[in-house]
Write a structure and sequence with these properties.
By secondary structure, the chain is of the alpha+beta class. The protein has helices at residues 2-13, 17-26, 34-40, 42-76, 85-92, 113-122, 132-136, 139-146, 179-184, 201-213, 216-225, 234-247, 253-262, 266-279, 286-293, 318-327, 330-335, 344-351; strands spanning 81-83, 104-107, 126-127, 148-155, 158-165, 186-188, 197-199, 355-357, 362-371, 377-386, 390-398, 416-422, 427-437, 440-446, 456-457, 464-470, 473-481, 494-504, 511-516, 532-534.
Length: 535
């Protein structure tokens, strides 16, 4: 399989070594391409060789922990099912260090979660995602059902992470299956001198495919639209190809198709097969693919809080994304983004109910209210004026204590203003949050245009701002030039935009939402519902 992946990279990327190395790294393929990279960039190869040594050490340390985990969970009568990780690496790879992994992934029956939590703590693990107080209040339970909770432990000088999955593919209720069915189809398997619970072949293959596919809406669609470098996990595609090669005659293929139909995932499986075949042709027989295509209508995604489950903000573009992936070669997809194939302005103009001609200055305003229990009703008002040079925004909140950013990890769940604009090449997002240091109040700026949140004090060189904060409210006045949103109104004659006020409950410190100037019922990042300005 390494030879085919190397041939793929040589054929399509050898004309640009820098780009080839970048794609190899962000597509999780560099470990598999180490021998080829050694020929073209010895310094990069040294880095990869060092990373592979660390990976091998990781597997050695995790095996020590897994042996303890399997023994203790068996004694407690808790079915601990392992997915991916060292067992998959050992099953499929001659050199396990070629498969990248950072943690131990397990799933357990829902009824056993509380006992598993106590057992992990008794084995020296601590919960990374929730405080003891939050766990005592049961806040971790609902989150765990949709996603996973991470635990950590030091093994001498090495930190081990265990992700305990309530939903086996971190997909909320997106797909029509339940985790219990997967766990019921896990059996004890002799491997590496242990007998862990591993998924039966049909279920393991579906798991590997869905684990690959579920990252597409975030790492390809969402990243494309926010102007972030896209990622398609070639390492995960290699896992699938190797799994089929080794277990082809163990898999009940009729049963596999039946499961795909019942779970309504047929098209997502076909997309994954197509991308895999661009590198590893003939992994699936054409007769099998033809049979699966007959069932293509059995495809569906349920409603869920997509972003919370790692799907990003643009799942509504799934049909367009799938068409692009099916109709273009993987080599071209890796070189660019979704926006090479779709036009956001066209979508916005086609779908938007608000078409506004901007000849001089246009004014918009919207009022909102928030029930705060004993404190009564908090009122807010958002006013926006736009012309060819800038947006002028005022936001007034009354009868509510203001929740400020004070150096925490996230700024989005504090009081402030959200601004969004759609340009031809990306969505431009600005978040202006009220911050406090000592007795001083000021505004900080951040954006979801970046993978990691970069929070900084706003610059008076770029924005004109006025901020007033009292015990019972605030006033924000902010002038934002279009150029700070990446918009040149002389060249770009149409712009989709929206503005929202952020409100957080001062009692619970819970984020209550962003209250939008336009179409307050839908997600702000859904640019189908933003007004289109015509300059």
């Amino acid at each position: 399989m390494k030879e085919k992946l190397t041939e793929f990279f040589k054929r399509y990327f050898s004309d640009d070594t820098k780009r080839m190395l970048e794609i190899a790294n962000r597509s999780n393929a560099s470990f598999l391409l180490a021998d080829y990279i050694k020929e073209i960039d010895k310094e990069e190869y040294k880095k990869i060789r060092a990373q592979k040594k660390v990976q091998k050490l990781f597997y050695e340390k995790t095996l020590e922990e897994i042996e303890i985990l399997t023994s203790e969970f068996d004694k407690a009568g808790i079915k601990l099912v392992f997915v991916k990780g060292v067992f998959l690496a050992k099953d499929l790879y001659e050199d396990i260090s070629e498969r990248h992994s950072q943690d131990i992934d397990v799933s357990i029956p829902e009824d056993d979660f509380e006992r598993a939590h106590v057992l992990l703590e008794s084995l020296g693990y601590t919960c990374c995602d929730f405080t003891d107080e939050e766990i005592g209040a049961g806040k971790h339970i609902e989150y765990w059902k949709e996603q996973h909770i991470c635990y950590e432990k030091m093994n001498k000088s090495y930190k081990i992470y265990v992700e305990v999955h309530g939903n086996i593919v971190n997909a909320g209720e997106a797909f029509d299956f339940n985790t219990k069915e997967f766990l019921d189809n896990a059996e004890k398997t002799e491997i590496l001198g242990m007998q862990p619970y591993l998924l039966k072949p049909e279920y393991n293959l579906i798991y590997l495919i869905l684990h690959f596919f579920k990252h597409i809406p975030l790492s390809y669609t969402h990243y494309s639209i926010l102007g972030i470098k896209t990622e398609i996990n070639l390492g995960a595609l290699t896992d699938i190809a190797l799994f089929i090669r080794k277990h082809r005659f163990e898999i009940e293929w009729d049963r596999f198709i039946e499961l795909c139909v019942r779970m309504r995932i047929v098209k997502y499986v076909l997309v994954t097969i197509k991308l895999m075949n661009d590198i590893y042709p003939d992994s699936f027989h054409t007769t099998f693919i033809d049979e699966l295509k007959k069932k293509e209508s059995y495809t569906h995604l349920n409603e869920l809080k997509y972003e919370r489950c790692g799907w990003g903000k643009y799942v509504w573009l799934m049909d367009e994304t799938i068409d692009v992936l099916l109709n273009n070669h993987l080599s071209e997809i890796l070189k660019g983004t979704l926006l090479d194939y779709i036009d956001m302005n066209d979508i916005a103009q086609r779908e938007s109910a608000h078409q506004v001609d901007v000849e001089d200055t246009c004014h918009f305003e919207q009022a909102f209210s928030l029930e705060l229990g004993e404190e009564g009703l908090s009122e807010s008002k958002l006013c926006v004026s736009v012309d060819k040079e800038k947006l002028d925004v005022t936001y007034r909140v009354s009868n509510k204590g203001i929740v400020c950013y004070e150096g925490e990890k996230n700024a989005f769940n504090r009081d402030g203003i959200d601004i969004l604009a759609a340009t031809p090449d990306k969505i431009r997002h600005k978040l202006f949050t009220i911050a406090k240091e000592g007795d001083e109040y000021y505004l900080v700026e951040s954006s979801q245009d970046y993978v990691c949140e970069n929070i900084k004090r706003i610059s008076e060189n770029f924005y004109k701002a006025k901020l007033e904060v009292s015990d019972k409210g605030c006033f924000i006045g902010l002038s934002v030039p279009w150029k700070e949103l990446g918009v040149d109104t002389e060249e770009q004659k149409t712009v989709s935009f929206n503005v929202a006020g952020l409100m957080t409950d001062p009692n619970t410190k819970e984020y209550t939402g962003n209250y939008q100037l336009f179409d307050n019922q839908n997600d702000m990042f859904d640019f189908r519902y933003m007004p289109v300005l015509h300059f």
